[in-house]
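I am writing to request your help with a piece of structural work I have in hand. The matter concerns a single protein, recorded as an amino acid sequence and a row of backbone structure tokens. Could you please explain, in whatever detail you think fit, how the structure tokens follow from the sequence? Thank you for your consideration; the sequence and its tokens are set out here:
>
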Amino acid sequence: MARSFGKISEVILTEPVNTCGADLTLGECLKIMRTSTTGCIVIMEPGGGKVAGIFTERDYIRKIAGNSINLGVKTVREYMTPDPVSLKGGDDVISALIKMRMGKFRHIVVVDDNKNLKALLSLREISEHIIDNYL
């Protein structure tokens, strides 16, 4: 039986969640990412708190780097990962770890029952939570 490391809502989420709309240019999106402490930005649906996608360092490396792409014209919508994997605050931390390992990503979106953005959970925050509370 898997060990419990608590609920996602118990993890202290200290990172601010960087968000933008899908029509932001790649250049503007990358500028936000460069000046922040996280390697991703959550893309929001127009006029609301619902998540449309996520744009990560990995998206940049795999889809943009080394290609002749006009960062001032192309939008993040064209290169984001749409409908990212998400969890709710009441889900187990171990569920987050499993989904992150299977998907090979370092950040997972936390939403409420209406799929509104609540937080962005990082692998680093999960590691700190486990070390501080269970080891």
